[in-house]
């Protein structure tokens, strides 16, 4: 179709930055890929508390932004600007802002996600507050995560340090 031919324009291709509408960066990336563009949308896995449970979510590394590789001379910008989820192409003056290739390459190399690189909501050593149960309102130090649902806490009861095990859903950061 000719929107982006990686063989013919590989030496001329550069990375540009697209600003997306609020919360629509995933939609914009999918729509641009469906149109044949080479898009890079760096994401990370984070653990968030939802409905009193910790869940893993995929969030954009740069909210509202994604990268697109194009040959500026051969590109028609109109289909990009009218893509669902895209707000605008980031420009300096009237020229699209070029993102240095080494920056995108570094992000690409570091974007490999594995279990060890996930951002955990609670970490060993964190100060936490118990939100439910008989220990409600108590401040403690998280000493160990026991699976995905439970945590071992060190808190002071009767002027002595005590270890207790509680559901992670009953904790919050103070």
What does this entry look like structurally?
Helices cover 16% and strands 41% of the residues. By secondary structure, it is α+β, with helices and mostly antiparallel strands. The protein has two domains: 6-117, Alpha-Beta Plaits (2-Layer Sandwich); 127-172, SH3 type barrels, CATH 2.30.30.30. Strands 1, 2, 5, 6 and 9 form a five-stranded antiparallel beta sheet that branches. β10 (127-130) and β11 (139-146) form a beta hairpin. The protein is elongated, with a radius of gyration of 23 Å.
Distance between the termini: 55 Å
Structural class of the helix and strand makeup? alpha+beta
The CATH C-level name of the largest domain is: Alpha Beta
Tally of DSSP β-strands: 14
Question: From the 3D coordinates, which CATH architecture of the largest domain would you assign?
Answer: 2-Layer Sandwich
User: What's the number of domains?
Assistant: 2
Helix count, DSSP H or I runs of 4 or more residues: 4
CATH superfamily of the largest domain: NusG, N-terminal domain
Could you provide a short overview of the structure?
The protein has four helices and 14 strands. The chain is an alpha+beta fold and 174 residues long. Strand 10 and strand 11 form a beta hairpin.
